[in-house]
Predict the structure.
Amino acid sequence: MIKVENISKYYQLGKFGSGRLREDFKNWWDKSFITQPEKDRSANGIWALKDISFEVAAGEVLGIIGNNGAGKSTLLKIISRITAPSNGCIMGNGRVTSLLEIGTGFHGELTGRENIYLNGHILGMKKKEIRERFDEIVDFSGVEKFIDTPVKRYSSGMYTRLAFAVAAHMDPEILIVDEVLAVGDAEFQRKSLGKMKEVSSKQGKTILLVSHNMQALKNLCNRAIVLHKGELINMGDPEIVIENYLKKEKTYNIFQEFDNMELAPGNDAIRIKKVELKPEYLPGQEVIDIRTPLNVYFEFWNLDHTVGSLIAGVLLFNMAGECIFDVGSEGDTSLTGLIEGRCRIPGNFLNDGSYYISIAFVKDTTNRLFYFESCLSFDVEDYRKNTAWYGKWIGHVRPSFPVILRPKEI
Amino acid sequence: MQKQSEWEWKIESHTKWNKWGLKELWQYKDLINRFVRRDLIANYQQTVLGPFWIFLQPVLTTIVYWVIFSKIANISTDGVSPVLFYLPGIIIWSYFSDCLNGTMYTFLQNSALFNKIYFPRLIIPFSHIIVHSVRLLIQLLLFTGVYVFYLIVSETLKPNVYILLLPVLILITAGFSLGAGLIISVITARYRDLDYVLQFILRLFMFATPVVYPTSLVPEKYQFVFWLNPLTPVIETFRTAFFSNGTFHFGYLFLSIISVGILLFTGIVLFKKKELRIMDII
C-alpha cells in the first residue's frame, strides 16, 4: 500500500565545476539575506516530476508508462528512497525492495556464494531468509558448479542469472521494478516474467513496474499510469491506457505528399508526389498490430524519357537496419508521367517491432534512378490471445501458418 | 482507507536533523557484517602474503622511522627503545588515517550502488570503521608480542593501570575519524578538489601528532595548541600506559572526548541530512 502525494522533483542544470563554490555561496547569501519572492526555479533547471499523486492498493500491480525522459525512473528512485523529492511526500506500509538494476552490489573478487549473501543483504534480506532460500536460489540460477568461484570469472549470462535468482527470491511486500525485463536473452526474459507473474498473482505482492514491453504490462498489471514530461496524464485500465498511449506517443511517418514537383524529393528522372501507408484496421482498432494488413501506396512522376523498363521496389527494414524483404514490380517500358504504385503487406506476417520502408526506382534492372530512403516508418504492436507467454516473440517475421500435431497412423 | 498515523514509512522532501535511523541501522546488521567480510576478504585476494600484510605494514613503517627519525635525524624517543616507541604512534595513526580515508569517499566511491538501491547509507562508513578496527586489534596483538619481549629483556619498562583506558583511546580515534570522515564525505561529493587539499593536510597533520617524536620535544608555548589535537592525548596516554614515561593529562583526554563527541554528532547530522540530496549532484 503506497500513497503518493503531490510529488515534484526539480533537477538543477548547468555548471558543475569551478564556479561552484562561488555560486553556492551566492545562492546561500541570496536566500538568507536578501528576501525576495521565490524566483521561477525552472529558469536553470527542469522539473522531472510535477505534482504527481496516486495510490497503489495492497496486492495491486501498477504499470508505469512513458517515453524516455518522462520521469518514470525518477519516480521509482524517489519511492525507492534513492533520491529525495523536491516537494510532496510518499507514505506506505510494508517492506520495499527495488530492482532498478540487476546485480547491483556484486563484487567480482567474491565467490558466487558470498555474493548471494552480500546481494541478498543489500536488497534487505535477513541472514536466516537467505540461508533458507540458498539452495533454491542456486538451483534457479543454474550455476551450482561455479558457486565457489569468484564471480569475475563468470560469463555475463551466468552473472545475470545469479543476480536475478537472488532478486527473484526476495520476499518484499512492495516490489519496484525498472526495465529489468528488458535485459538478457529470450529464455531469461521468459523466466523473469514468469516469476513476476507468480509473485503478483500467487503471493499477492504490490508491484510497481516500469517497462516498454506493453504486452507484459497488459498481462501483469491491474492498472497503469502514463507519465509525460513529468506529469501524470492518464491512469486506469491497462488495456485502454496502453492503447491510448501508443496512439498518442508514437510518431509514425505514414504519410508524405509533395504538391510542387520542383521541390519534391527526387531527381531529373523521378520525382515523388506521395507516399502513404494505409493500415486495414479491424473495427474499433486504432493501432497497427501484427494482425493488421498494410497497404503501401505511392505516386511519382517518371521524367525519364529514355527507353528502358522501369521497376519500383519496396524494401522493408527493421530498426536495426536489417532488410526484411525487397519486392519489386515487373519491368514496364511504357510508363511515363504520373504513376501510382501499391503493395499490400498481409496481416499475420510481420513480427512486432519498429519498421521503415524505402522505395527504390530502377531502370533496366541494374541502373538505380532514385532511392527514397526510409520514407515511411511505423510500429507493429504485439497481439496475443489466450497465451501464457508474453516475452518478446523472436523472429523477423511472424506468419500464422499452422504447426500440426496428430497421432501417427500406423 | 487507512489513517495518517498508520503509515509505516514516509518519504518527505526534507530530513529532520534528529532522525538518524539508528534502529534501521540495527536491522541491517547482517549487511554491515557482510560488508566487513567483503572488505577483509577481497582486500587480500590474489596477494602473496594475504592478511599477513596487516602485520607487515606497521613493521615496515617502524623500521623506516627507526632508521630515519631515530638513527639519522636523532630525534629523542624519551629513553624507550625506538621500535617500541614508534609502534603505538604508527598503529594509532594508521588506524586514524585508514578510517578517515575509508569514510571520506563514501559518496564518491559508492555512487553507482547508491544510485540503484536503498539501504541506510551510514552502513558504508560504519563498516569501514569496523574493518579497520579488526585490523587494529590484530596489530595490537603484534604490539603486545613485541612489548612482552621487551618486558622480559628490559628492566626499566613498566606497565601501569592506564592500560585499562585503551578501549577509550580506540573509541576516541574511531569517533574522530568517523566524525571528520562523514563531514568530509558530504563536502567532497560537491567540491571534489577538496580531496587534494585534504590529502595534503592529512600528511601535515601526522607531523602535528606525536607519532615520530615525544610530546616533551614540543616547546612550552605551543604545548596548549598541540594538546588540542584529539590524537595527542590518545597517543600520549597509550605510551604512558605501557612505558610509564609519557605525559598523561586527564584534562586534555577529557577535552578530546568532548571535541570528538561534538564532531561525531555534527558529522552524523550533516550526513543524514544530506545523504539523499547528494545523489542529485554526484
Notes: Residues 143 and 396 of chain A are 32 Å apart (CA to CA). The longest helix of chain A spans residues 186-202. Chain A touches chain B at residues 1, 3, 11-12, 16, 20-21, 24, 77-94, 96, 98, 100-101, 104-105, 107, 109-110, 114, 117-118, 121-124, 126-127, 150 (CB under 8 Å).
